User: What shape does this take?
Amino acid sequence: MPDNRIAVITGAYRGIGREVARRLAKQGFTSIIGARDPKKGDQASTELRQEGLNVSALQLDVSSDTSVQQFAKEVLQKYGRVDALVNNAAIWYDYGNSIISTDLAKAHEAFEINFFGAWRMAQAFVPTMRDRRFGRVVNVSSGAGSLADMGGNTPVYSATKAALNAFTRALAAQVEGSGILVNSVCPGWVRTEMGGPNAPRSVEQGAASVVWAVLLPASGPTGGFFRDGEPIAW
Ligand code: NDP
Assistant: This one.
């Protein structure tokens, strides 16, 4: 990996994303936090800078073409490249939701964020990775998106993550041999706003699963689905 590496992490003013930004900065990255609310992003980056870390924040709504384009323009103007893209932003763990009577407008919104958000971000940054023949794309997915043992508990969320996994496979195949590794990662069940207080894992443990895929060497896997650095079923 080049020196002075640049990482973009979406939805990262709190939760797993924030801890990923922190850990990558500790590894020598400049971490750029994307946050829907710029005040929350600024507050998080200020706190992390107070730990001596190289972190900045920019407004980013991954469901908006305009916002993603503006974010990418600012990042590329300022830093010239992005070495790692962590697609972390997601909404709506719709536990107990009915697939028959669910609000489809809400389901569309979830797809816009959880699935198309990652796609938009990849369209914005993968071309510069390809030019430089280096990049790591980590799609933060979930075991709930695994088709192998999918049930009906979280129908919309699971569908968005299964789609995200398909995107991981297709993107990995299309950029194979260009120095870019693309993987899906499940952080496990983690104590965050989404995971709730009863989850067994800390944000540190969840983030470690994600950071592993950012730090992969050139010989590392691509087009895979991992938790804690181990392959899991699609
Ligand atoms: P949180 O709910 O704590 O954080 C989600 C983040 O995404 C928030 O910062 C939120 O910001 C942001 N976000 C939502 N919508 C957008 C948007 N349109 N544009 C930009 N940012 C947005 O969740 P976690 O930290 O728990 O989850 C992180 C990732 O890990 C997600 O992809 C999740 O699906 C995955 N995951 C989590 C598990 C868990 O147990 N926690 C288990 C398996 C996977 P805002 O406040 O603006 O909404």
User: Anything to note?
Assistant: The chain has one domain: 6-231.
